[in-house]
Amino acid sequence: SIAYGLTNLRVKPTRSTTCCGWCQLPAMADIADPLPAQTHALPVKQREERGRALREAAKRGAHGDWTTASRDPIAILIEQDKMRLPELVIENCSSGGHRLEPSMLGRTAMSSFSDAHELVEIPLIAGNLHRLMLPRQSQIWAVLHRSDNEQRLIYSLAATFLGRMCLSGEVDRLTPKQWALVLRAQALYRQAAPIIKHGVSRRYGEMGESWRHPRGWQAMWRMATDAESALLVVHAFAGAPFSAGIPLPAGSWRIAERLDSSVTTDIAVEGSGMTLALKAEFSAQVLLLRRSRA
User: Fold this and answer.
1) CB neighbours of residue 244 within 10 Å
2) Residue 133 Cα to chain centre, angstroms
3) Which residues sit opposite 287 in a β-bridge?
4) d(C-alpha 231, C-alpha 226), whole Å
5) Per-residue model confidence as pLDDT tens digits over 4-50
6) In this structure, what is the dihedral angle of CA atoms 254, 258, 262, 267, given to the nearest 10 degrees?
7) In the 8-state DSSP scheme, what is residue 176?
8) Which residues are CB-neighbours of 64 under 8 A, at least 6 positions away?
9) Which one of 36, 92, 163, 186 has the fewest CB atoms closer than 10 angstroms to its CB?
């Protein structure tokens, strides 16, 4: 569809006769800039040929030379989609080639943060992206399995608090106890959403030499814009148990809500600091903190 539409412009609107009911909607056809003929009903071979033709006509490496008269075809497509369907939420994703760069991030509502959906380095990747993109745009996938124990489920779910929570995997096969844990995580996420959306991040931790085989720990502190609440997401990697300290902003803080397991972390809040006793490798904890009022 994309390749055909960008290389074969039509003079007047024409509804597709080979597409699904969605593409028959007036909003998708009765416009001055018509919807191109849909190609997903064509043989795979023909679709491949059209895709190659598009890539040759608009090579990614040349986008730095594009001008107003010769712009990125994908950017043009996104702008046309927004015009046709203003309520459309667009995800920026293409299996690793999804362009986490300013122009695409500015045009789309969210981006899939990585293809490392089931790997233990997810918190490291997601934490690093706080420097590149807004957490509210960063889709962090928790791939859940029935075989996951409580510690592993929380490790995966906690990572989603570093961005936009997305669930995948064997969600439909989880036990009632496992699903109850997922619901707990979602309830806490809803409370933390304003902080994730508008807060300011600061990262603490000690990392090993390899991200693929992480050692040490990471703690991401995200302060709300009013400085009255904060979110803390802690992950322990290989090498636990050990203790870690995190400085706290001035004031008296209390833990309002938490997501953890019995084997993860002991926490002590004292004055201007917080001490974490990380008891288990590849464990995690999420804390929602609020300022205490005298």
Assistant:
1) 20
2) 10
3) 232, 258
4) 13
5) 555 555 554 444 444 444 444 444 444 444 445 556 567 778 878 87
6) -30
7) H
8) none
9) 186
Buried b (16+ CB within 10 A) or exposed e, 122-133: bbbbbbebbeeb
**Residue 57 to residue 7: CA distance in whole angstroms:** 9
In contact, 51 and 23? CB cutoff 8 Å: no
Q: Which residues contact 239 (CB under 8 A, 6 or more apart)?
A: 208, 215, 216, 281
Q: Give the DSSP letter string of 89-150.
A: --EE-STT-S--SHHHHHHSSEEE--S-TTSTTHHHHHHHGGGTS-GGGEEEEEEE-TT--H
CB 217 within 8 A of CB 278: yes
Greatest CA separation found in the chain?
71
**Nearest one of 259, 218, 222, 210 to 235, comparing CA atoms:** 218
> Residue holding tokens 């369907």?
85
Whole-number Å distance between alpha carbons of 246 and 248: 6
Burial bucket for residue 160 (CB in 10 Å: 0-12, 13-18, 19+)? buried
169: how many CB neighbours lie within 10 A of its CB?
Answer: 17
E strand residue ranges, the chain: 91-92, 110-112, 138-144, 164-169, 200-207, 216-223, 229-236, 242-247, 253-259, 265-270, 273-278, 283-291
Write the pLDDT tens digit of every residue in 268-286: 777 778 888 888 899 999 9
